[in-house]
Amino acid sequence: MTIDRDDLEPLEPSTAQQLFLDHKEAGCSESTVRNYKYRTNHFIRWCQQEGIDNLNELSGRDIQQYRLWRKDDGTLNKLTLRMQMSSLRVFLKWAGTIEAVPESLYDKVMIPRVSPEERQRDETLDADTAQEILDYLTKYEYGSIEHVVLALLWETGMRSGAAHSLDVEDVNFDQGRIRLVHRPDEGTTLKNGKAGDRLVAMTPALSDLLEDYIEDQRRAVEDGHSRKPLLTTARGRMHRNTIRRVIYRVTSPCYRGDPCPDCEEKPNAKCPEAVSPHAVRRGSITHFLSEDVPVEVVSDRMNVSRKVLDQHYDKRSEEVKLEQRRGYLDHI
C-alpha cells in the first residue's frame, strides 16, 4: 500500500538520524554505524540551515538541492560525494519504512557517476557492503568458492596473489592461522618476495568456513608441482585472473538480487558497482583501522609499510580519524 504524504508521521531530522543509527546498530559493526553517522551528519546540518524541522516536508527537489549544496560545500571528490549520497539513499529508504517520508523518495536520490579511472584510484569495498555480501553467501552459498574467496580476502586483507599461493597444508586449524610462503621455484610468489612470508591469524568463523570448504566443496586436485592448492578449479590451482573474476562477480549487487540501473541500461556490461580484489584489500585495511586496531598490527598483518598504508590504503575520513583520536585523549 502506498502511503500518501498526508498520512506521514512528523519526525525531526536529527531524531530520525538517531533512530536510523539505532536500527543499524542491530546488524552492523561499530565502524559501519560511525560511517553512516558521519555521512548523514551533513544532511542534518543542511536541514538545520534550510529550516527543515520535519522530514515529511522533503521532496525530490529538496534532495537535488542538497546534492548541489554538498557538492559545493568543501573539497569533495566524486567518490566521496557518491558514498555520501548512497548513504543518504539508504537513510531515506529506511525513513520511508517508518512513514517519515514518501516510500519512493529514496529513488529520487541521484548517485554521481564516477569514471573507471577515478573509481580505480580510490575504489574501496566498505565494511557494510562486505558484511551484506558475506551474509548473503553464508545463507545461500555457504562453503562455495565465491564465499571462500571473498571471506579469505576480506578477513585477512591479503592480496589475491597471496590467496592464489596458498596450499591446504598452509592452513593450520589447530593453531588458527594461515602460513604465507614465497615459493618462486614452485610457481607461486608473494609480491614482496621472502619479506612477504608471514603467519596470519584466522577468526573462528573463517576457520570453520575453510574447514567445511576443504571437506565438502574443494576439488581434490594438485597443481603441476604436486602441491594441493587451497583454491582450485577442475584444472588445478585457481588462476589469479579467476580470483579477480570471482570478486567482480560477488561484489555486483546483481549477484545477490539487488537492482543495478546501469546494468539494466546496458545488458551484458560489467556491473559498475562491482569492485576489484584490491578494493577488497583496501576496504579490509580501512575496516581494521576504523575498529582501532593499531597501525603497526595492521601493517604487519597485511604486509604493507606504514608509508604505503597511509598513502594508498587508509580510506578513513578525516572525521573518523578525529573521533578516534578524541577517544584516546578522553582516556588520558
Give a structural overview.
Residues 11-96 form the Core-binding (CB) domain. One of its GO terms (molecular function) is DNA binding. One of its GO terms (biological process) is DNA recombination. Residues 120-326 form the Tyr recombinase domain. By secondary structure, the chain is mainly α. The protein folds into two domains: 5-114, Tyrosine recombinase, N-terminal domain (DNA polymerase, domain 1, Orthogonal Bundle), CATH 1.10.150; 123-327, hpI Integrase, Chain A. It has helices spanning 13-25, 30-50, 60-72, 78-97, 116-122, 127-140, 145-156, 160-165, 204-216, 240-250, 261-265, 277-290, 295-302, 306-313, 318-329; strands at residues 171-172, 177-180, 198-201, 232-233, 236-237. The model has no long low-confidence stretch (mean pLDDT 84).
Pattern of helices and strands: HHHHHHHHEEEHEEHHHHHH
- The backbone outline, from C-alpha atoms, is elongated
CATH architecture of the largest domain, please?
A: Orthogonal Bundle
What about the largest sheet?
3 strands, antiparallel
Low-confidence stretches: none
Helix content: 40-55%
Can you summarize this structure?
This protein is mostly helical and 332 residues long. It has 2 domains: 110 residues, DNA polymerase, domain 1 (Orthogonal Bundle); 205 residues, Orthogonal Bundle (hpI Integrase, Chain A), CATH 1.10.443.10. Helix content is 53%, strand content 4%.
